[in-house]
Write a structure and sequence with these properties.
Elements: E1 4-5, E2 8-9, H1 11-27, E3 32-34, E4 38-41, E5 47-50, H2 51-58, H3 66-85, H4 89-96, E6 97-102, E7 125-131, E8 140-142, H5 145-150, H6 159-179, E9 187-188, H7 196-199, H8 203-211, E10 218-224, E11 227-229, H9 239-246, E12 258-260, E13 265-267, H10 274-280
Antiparallel strand pairs: 1-2, 3-4, 4-5, 6-7, 7-8, 9-11, 10-11, 10-12, 12-13
Helix pairs in contact: 1-3, 6-8
Length: 295
Amino acid sequence: MPGYRLGVPRASHVLALRGCVLAVSVLEDLDLEPRERGLVLDGSPPVSVGWPAVRVAIGRHSPDSATARRRLADWLRLRRLVADLGADAGKVLRQAARAVALPPGHAAHPGRAWVAHRPLGGAMECGLGVLGLLDDPDAVMVLPSGIVTAAGADARRWWGPVLEHAEGMGHLAVQRLRRDADETQAVLRPIGGVDVPSLLLAPALRRHLASEDGSGMRALAVPMRTRGWYDLARIDPAFVAAAWSATDDWERGFSRPLLVTAEEVTLAPAGGDAVRQSLSDPAAARDWQRDVRYR
């Protein structure tokens, strides 16, 4: 990583990391104390975190960015939780573990060490998250490998049961889609702590979506992790990009439609300007003549 020698940040990088830590302490109300070699989280027991670990938590993002501060705050809260749980930390993390699928380069993506599975198609990378362990009982946070290590656990044994749970939620999603087949919404929603991208890990859901119209492929709009639209004939082409841009970085999904088959999830090819195309489309004389949901 640029700026490192034997895993130790240079002095200029330490100053930038120290500024990020101080900002997190003030803005996120975390009790910590910067030290020469890192920081110490207040509590019983106190937790020491070195500058290399802080840099890993921030990832590729600039230390003075809002994304870096949020990543570090989440990492430190989870680290404090592990210390508070003590010997029970591994068990608690395992019980709360969920599958999380993110686009490569997503703001919340912890890095290559986190990735446990890469579905065919290259649109997603998948790893572990935890449900409801901090303030929001319904929130799923990614679980960086450093936190698992601090808990003294081996997460390699977790992925199989976690993936089975995601597949079970995918089966439940198929049942709901069949039940609501007469409705016009055509919307996917999270189920059981598994968000929409992660539901696509389930072969049953992919097969259902891909085979519903007999083509073997379905275009799916997932601009946010909490919603997916699979009837794109009723959606304005500019909606996906606009919804993605308007969504918080942490909750963003995919900036372009997904193409889903029984075996793959891939991004639609880049190109064109959906917003310009939509704005240049002349308005119909009457609203009912335009078969789209969003204007």
